[in-house]
What does this fold into?
Amino acid sequence: MSLPWTVIRQLAEIEDMAMSKKVITREEWEKKLNDVKIRKEDMNKLVMNFLVTEGYVDAAEKFRMESGTEPDTDLATITDRMAIKKAVQCGNVEDAIEKVNDLNPEILDTNPQLFFHLQQQRLIELIRNGKIEEALEFAQEELAPRGEENQSFLEELERTVALLAFDDVSNCPVSDLLDISHRSKTASEVNAAILTSQSHEKDPKFPSLLKMLIWAQNQLDEKADYPRINNLSTAELEDSSV
It folds into this structure.
């Protein structure tokens, strides 16, 4: 037996009410935000964490003096870490390896993947500078033995050596290896390894907090219309779509 039309309509209205989103006005939302208390000390620690992790040693020192926030690592080690990172970014990989070993030889001894990537970057720099014979000799003596022990290393080596097969490397399938971004990738890997060796987080906390903000807003979008933060650089609240 079919349900009466009035019952069907009432059921539909109940379902619509269950599925409807709560609307939160800007005034209500700002009041909720103002009720959240964050300690200044915690904010200062976040700022110091960012400055230390990213290597802004001068800014970290000034911030320490102005805020009284002590870093969780010796600021002198930041200078060493940034010198290594800069050396890789400038293509002075051999110098970077020496600096890493001076800082802590266990970093490369216990991280074969990082050492291979540094050696791979050395090979790329030789090819970039047109030292073909030296590049071939280096690949054969230093990288080939490591490739025999690790399939992923061998694939990366073959991809790097492929640069030698093209007269115009700017248009070859592996031209990305010669891009400055590849230097930056290797430099970031070294930076992360040094931070880990110093019992420090390899990434600053700020990006994680921003990811948590985006995730929380996406979850809340399913239940309410409220002023969102769409532009993370300005953190401005944008009015609800309703």
